Amino acid sequence: MSQRVRKAVLPVAGLGTRFLPATKVIPKEMIPVIDKPVVQYAVEEARAAGIEEFIFVSAEGKESIGAHFSAHPSLEKQLSDKGKTAELKLVRDTSLPPGKIHTVIQENPLGLGHAVWCAWQLVGDEPFVVILPDDMVLSKTPCIKQLIDAHARVGGHVVAVEDVPRDQTNRYGILDVLSEQGSLAKAKGLVEKPAPESAPSTLAIIGRYVLDPIVFKELDKKTKGAGNEIQLTDALNRTLSSVPFHGLRFEGIRYDCGTRVGFVEANVAFGLAHPDMEPRLRPLLKKLLEE
Ligand code: UTP
Predict the structure, then answer these.
(1) How far apart are CA 102 and CA 130, in angstroms?
(2) For the CA of 106, the nearest atom of ligand 1
(3) Would the CB of 15 count as within 6 Å of ligand 1?
């Protein structure tokens, strides 16, 4: 039986250049979708999947991310004194238990692979989850739980995948598929950001992974790939002879909050998923489109 997955790595050290000037002072991950920062959705999804420990790979100037998940005694006291119990619960629910939240600083944004490598000491020798908060998933079962359940069956690396339009393969890590069984696609190779004409498939990795710790040894070689960055996909590709690699066609819809259009789409989708907002939002959107 495979080891229980307890730890999540959240790489949040990127510059967020696509959202400048919003991200000049506010980290991209702290921009809210409806009423919660984007990164809070990722943490809630992981907690709902049984993850206990969180490792943020962060950068200078992004301290508000760690602060958001720590206790805020003065705010809690003021809300309590005013009898605002519902609001107090909202604030308390965001706090992660002491000792269960860690931040490592990635001094230079050398790539996603390097960001994950920064968490090696804190993860140790056990399977772990990587979540890119930019990708938000609306689903019945948390996407991370779907991956962990699949990982319990097949072990190795299990990542969330979806089919993307062929003209977008150069934005993703793409699977070279060996075989498919139900919702699991076994890969014989992986390519980071292939041109549409050379992509081995259109099955793209999105920001949810369960990884075997063997990947750290490959990342430790610090080999540079596409964009002159240390790519996670390349390191995973080099472990394929040692551990199985499966893509899971997860149940749910992914929203790419790393782009402006995707961010608006996520706000609308998550707004419509709110029972108290949906009845007012739906007619409003219809009206806007008719204008
Ligand atoms: P992106 O490619 O979206 O980069 O990174 P970015 O800097 O966040 O955004 P743009 O492109 O400048 O607008 C994907 C994920 O990997 C993390 C980012 O924080 C994001 O969660 N990342 C990327 C790191 O933590 N370190 C890196 O060196 C690169």
Answers:
(1) 14
(2) 26
(3) yes
Rounded mean pLDDT, 125-135: 97
The one-letter amino acid at 291 = E
For the segment 235-257, the average pLDDT, to the nearest whole number, is 97
Cα R_g (the chain), whole angstroms: 19
Atom 10 in ligand 1: which residue has the minimum CA distance? Answer: 16
Q: What is the distance between the alpha carbons of residues 158 and 267, in angstroms, rounded to a whole number?
A: 28
Structure-derived torsion over alpha carbons of residues 71, 76, 77, 81, reported in degrees to the nearest 10: -170
Conformational region of residue 155, where left means phi above 0, alpha means psi within -120 to 50, and beta covers everything else: left
Q: Which residues contact 150 (CB under 8 A, 6 or more apart)?
A: 158, 183, 184, 210, 246, 248
What's phi and psi for 240, nearest 5 deg?
-65, -25
CA of 133 to the centre of ligand 1 (A): 10
- Measure 198 CA to ligand 1 centroid, in angstroms: 25
First-to-last alpha carbon distance for the chain, in angstroms, is 58
**pLDDT tens column, 61-112:** 999 999 999 999 999 999 999 999 999 999 999 999 989 999 999 999 999 9
Nearest ligand 1 atom to alpha carbon 132: 21
CA distance linking residue 8 with residue 54, whole number of Å: 5
Give the pair of three-digit tokens for residue 262. 């995707």
Domains and CATH numbers, the chain: 7-258 (3.90.550.10)
